[in-house]
Amino acid sequence: MHKGATTDEPHGTSRQGHGRQSKAGVPIEKENIPFVDSDHEDECFDDGGDRLAAAISSRSTVDQEYDIMTESQENLARAYITGRNAAGPSLAERRMQEKLTVSIDTSSNDGDLIEEARDKATELKLIDERARGLRRNSISLPSLNVNELEVLRSAHECENGSKISVMESGSDSLSDGTTVTPETPTTPANLKPMLQFNDDSSSDEDDKRRSKNLFRTKRRSSIAPLPALRLNDKEMMSNDFDTHSVLSNQASITSVNSLASLLKEKMQNVPAIIRKKKRETKDYKLRVFVGMLFLIIVFLVGYAYVMYNQKLLAKSYFESIKFHKKTRNFRLLDGKGGELLTGVLGTSLNIEQPYNCLPKDLKDDGSVCYEWNSKARLYMNLAKSPGPDIKCYSFQWESLLADLYPTDCFDVSEERGFWYGGGLTKGIEYILGKATIPAGPFVTGDINMHQWGNALKRYFLNSRGVAIQVDEKTPLYVSVNTDSGKRLCLQGKNDKFAFVNQQTRFPELKYTVCSGPDMKTLHNGLMQKSLWDGLTERDNDVIKSLLREPVWQIPASKQEDLTEVAIYNYTESIIALGYLRLGHVLVNEFWQRTIGDFRLDSERFPTLDETVNILHRRGFRVSFMIQPFISTESSNFREAVAKKLLIFERESERSIPALTRYKSTTSAGVLDVTNNASIPWLAEQLKKISETVEIDSYFVDFGTAFNIPRYYQCSQTLVNPDEYKNYFMERFEGTLSIFGVSSAISVPRPPAFLSLPPVNSSWSGLQSIIPTMLSYGIIGFPFLMPGPVGGDFVLPTQQLKKMYSYYSFELPPLPDKELYIRWLQLATFLPVLRFTHLPSEYRDETVTVIAKELADIRQRVLPLLERFSSIAMDEGLPIIRPLWMLDSTDVNCFSIDDEFSIGDGMIVAPVLKKGETVREVYLPQGVWKDGIDESLRKGSRWIHNYHVPQNKVAYFIKMPDNTRF
Fold first, then answer.
1. Tens-place pLDDT, residues 410-455
2. Cβ-Cβ contacts under 8 Å for 18 (sequence gap 6 or more)
3. What 3-state DSSP class applies to 38?
4. Fewer CB in a 10 Å sphere around the end CB: N or C, the chain?
């Protein structure tokens, strides 16, 4: 209550005449309406003033100082009391009259405002009419205490005799969703209004009482701001003139007629601080999103920049080569952009940016040149291609430091295709990628002791149609599948033996990379072409005789075993066979007393000339094995030293010969074939033999590179010890008739056949023959002569702590019968059939019968051998070929090393394991005739569990393409 106010005025007295003013600016007297504090809504009493007085008295005990209702509270109370029947001025008129919210400055339009604010008694409109359009412009009023409003309403209902329905706290509005504007209560001018919405002015007890019976929900506490007001041509927002509606955010009476209005008001219900927090949350998420987006953009831009620079650095050379100058990653691409060859060039260099070579270091052939900080230079250029479908590129490293060895490595994993070539490895691997070879000089050696066999070619072929050819003058070191992984590494490195004679000041590595549409086309294009140049009719007859007739190697593991009688008796046994042709009788180096005598041993061969004449009359050809080695025990050694015909010690006088070991000779010198005086001397020695004994041809045993003295020096500098063989063949071309050589690094001039390395008389030795034939055929040796049937030597049964050269072992005794039969079955299809042990030595009818059958098969095979030997002379292709040469697109043919083809007309699949009578056979595309049962078989498929009895060998003849079943 107001201090000093009386409460004995009746509640229902009319207040229209109280406090009214006739002029603007005079305050209007306001009535004091006390709060009601009662929880009994339905209780009615006759004397409403008494209950009201009790409520007011109760209220005054709580707070006597601020017991004055504000205008908003009074309006709200009158709205509940008068409800539907009360008539009086509207709230808008009273607010304009009393200037409750905003003080409006007077101006020229003051009269209009005063006139507009006058209070005129009018009839109240119906609730529906008054509520129409009021929802959008609803007024936010400050809230009254719930108990006070209930007391006031109860008193009014009892006075009028009608009951006002009080909606529960969960209702959205009063009187069917309408909003009532009550009369404006008046208070004495000297009294201070109380703001009940201030949290600080209420006690905890009030909060508890309010929570018991809530009059409004949160929606009723929403804020419905007033519309903007335009005054003096200036637009004012609601918060500029309606302070109560801003402060009192808990007293909005709204409508529920519209769902859209409900949603809009729900959004307005949210306190400003919550909205701010939501905005802050959204801002935080937005900032995180923007930050993440910024980081992604930075990453993408950086990645694009790096890739762009990588692409720029990985410059394309000659359309097919991609080379990254800094990392030196290398890729060779096909026409469709696929990778044919990948690797890393210059692995011995640190990763650093190269520079373009200086003008003085450029070549005049248009090569691209890069230099790595005075360490090495790389030249890249196009090379001459052998065919229109083949592209070749040259690479040359020049080291600028003595201890820098340029090294290029290429991926040889099966994912990059199958690699072949180089030569025969120590592990007899036909596929180069399966071998493990530490870095070492690429020179010939004894396969039992060294990494490479007796024949090498600096040629490596990939099944994807890529080939690498290394220059002959490069001091080449090769490693395969070492610590660097599945890689074939080529290195230019000088050493103290193999490449001691430096061709350049510092090491160099030079090679050519070629690519073709497929492996077969590429290989055919790169192989040496015609071999007919310089071939005589006699040479051609020797080739045919070697194909048609066997080579009979006189068995003699010791010097005393080889005698004139032994030769005669051996030839008699050959004639006694009756089913094999007579051929070449090969006499090993023991025909002389000591190696290098170049004279017949008169004690063991007193009448060899007569014996040889007999052999000629019977149809044999006699061949002697010679070698460029001269034993220190030979009578010719003294003469050769005196005439300086031998290889001499490095950095010494030429009169001091360099010594080595050769076969059974523990100390021997080597004839210096680079000396112009040595060739006539050797030719003279051999001429003396021919004057005594008519020799048809010679087999030259060069040994290997490791049979050359360690500290050798020749009259003319050799690139490597293997070059000695090339010199010998060139110098004696046309002087000697050579039908076979033991070692080579280039194709010997026909009719010379390359002999396979000696193999052990065992099943493992038998299994090594086909991979060796295939490997040598791929690297360009078309005419191959395998070892004798049954093997060249036999290993001791005890375990060897160190493997020695095969020269240290004796010739094998008679091999196991099954091993001999399977070996003979394989040899029947090879270009040259070579014997030491005769089938008759077994004295077994089974062996004899099988040998006769194989002799008949040999006669059917001879036409194919002669046909493809002519093709080999024309195109340089091998006679014995891998299956992929029949179909280079069939991946099944790439890894097969226990089958081979004779040209493209026959496939042979011998049994190579002890006790087996079945095997797996693969036939390439086409129609094939089975050699055992003469049935026709379709190609491009495997034949599983193919039965091959001991007396049979599996072979298949190619039929014409139009053959039908």
1. 999 988 999 999 999 998 999 998 999 999 999 999 988 899 999 9
2. 29, 31, 186
3. coil
4. C
